[in-house]
Amino acid sequence: MNDRYGRSIDYLRVSLTDRCNLRCIYCMPEEGVYKKSHEEILRFEEILKIVNAAALLGVKKIRYTGGELLILKGIEELIEKTSKVPGIKDIAITTNGILLEDLADKLKESGLSRVNISLDTLKEDKFKQITRGGDINKVLRAIQKCISIGLTPVKINTVLIKGINDDEISDFINLTRELPVEIRFIELMPIGQGEKLYEKGFMSSGEVIARFPELMPLETNKSSTASLYKMKNSKGKVGFISPLSCKFCTSCNRIRLTSMGTIKPCLHSANELNIKEYLNNEVLLTSALKEVIYNKPSQHNLECDKKSSSNKMMYQIGG
Ligand code: SAM
Ligand code: SF4
């Protein structure tokens, strides 16, 4: 369905958990997060009810994310059941890739269409530093595995942070010469732990694009959040996601469901609806969703406020 600004909302992003097996410096506090009780977190059956209602309103694409969703038992079943919801055409996940190599086959068989894997450095030591202890080799093997089984296009999310990984931009771009992957450089957002790094660490996409004149612009789908580029003769692509320097609110097609059962019509707005209250009645659930979609805010003000208005963190909302 369309919101009141005429944007067609056909994409639901779901954070399945706020827990994670890593502690990235721009996302989670070092000590981790307060562990929620089972009652506080949506169950898979509840999520499927919401997915069903969203599909009735025209949602076609689902992205499951977190926290880290692959730490959850039964994720393959959730994907399989989601793939059977009438109207759902595309199921993607965003993962840190640590547990993906072993799960990739099963996830594909269950109906997963595509994966986004987060990777902010190509160096083993720096990966340990950024993620506070992760093993990069597991992520690199997961990327190869997804390519080999055709879980493609594999998109690699790289948050750029000045002074931390800006010395590796050309290495990431060069990866696309040989690998059929899309490297997506993401502007650091001042949300959660990102707020602490933002002032010194923010780098705009424009700054990077200006440094690499050999990147050739490609035509980009209207609802795509990334502007796409390519190196001559490369197998992959390079994307830039610029929520601050070139925000994409006018073509935003998504709403979000947090792991605690609230619907957020915008990542950076404080507006939320507790959808748990409507789970026992499909008619009420659908009409509550309809109202949230219709009233989606026109835009965020992150670039002016230098701070997200969201009351939730990235790991609760899903990136
Ligand atoms: N754990 C999974 C992962 O890391 O891919 C999924 C959840 S994570 C919150 C989703 C995405 O949000 C990741 O690509 C991550 O890099 C990004 N992210 C987290 N905090 C961010 C911030 N402050 N600015 C920009 N991107 C951020
Ligand atoms: Fe975990 Fe993803 Fe946040 Fe890193 S970015 S701490 S992997 S949720």
From TrEMBL:
Protein name, as recorded: GTP 3',8-cyclase
HAMAP family: MoaA_B
Annotated positions binding [4Fe-4S] cluster 1: 20, 24, 27
Subunit annotation: Monomer and homodimer.
SMART domains per the UniProt record, alphabetical: Elp3
Residues involved in S-adenosyl-L-methionine binding: 26, 67, 118, 189
Keywords assigned by UniProt, alphabetized: 4Fe-4S, GTP-binding, Iron, Iron-sulfur, Lyase, Metal-binding, Molybdenum cofactor biosynthesis, Nucleotide-binding, S-adenosyl-L-methionine
Residues in Radical SAM core domain copies: 4-226
Enzyme Commission number(s): 4.1.99.22
Transmembrane segments: none
Similarity field: Belongs to the radical SAM superfamily. MoaA family.
Residues bound to [4Fe-4S] cluster 2: 249, 252, 266
Task performed by this protein: Catalyzes the cyclization of GTP to (8S)-3',8-cyclo-7,8-dihydroguanosine 5'-triphosphate.
Swiss-Prot/TrEMBL cofactor(s): [4Fe-4S] cluster
The protein's annotated pathway: Cofactor biosynthesis; molybdopterin biosynthesis
Cofactor note: Binds 2 [4Fe-4S] clusters. Binds 1 [4Fe-4S] cluster coordinated with 3 cysteines and an exchangeable S-adenosyl-L-methionine and 1 [4Fe-4S] cluster coordinated with 3 cysteines and the GTP-derived substrate.
Pfam family, one: Radical_SAM
Residues given in the record as GTP binding sites: 13, 63, 94, 155, 254-256
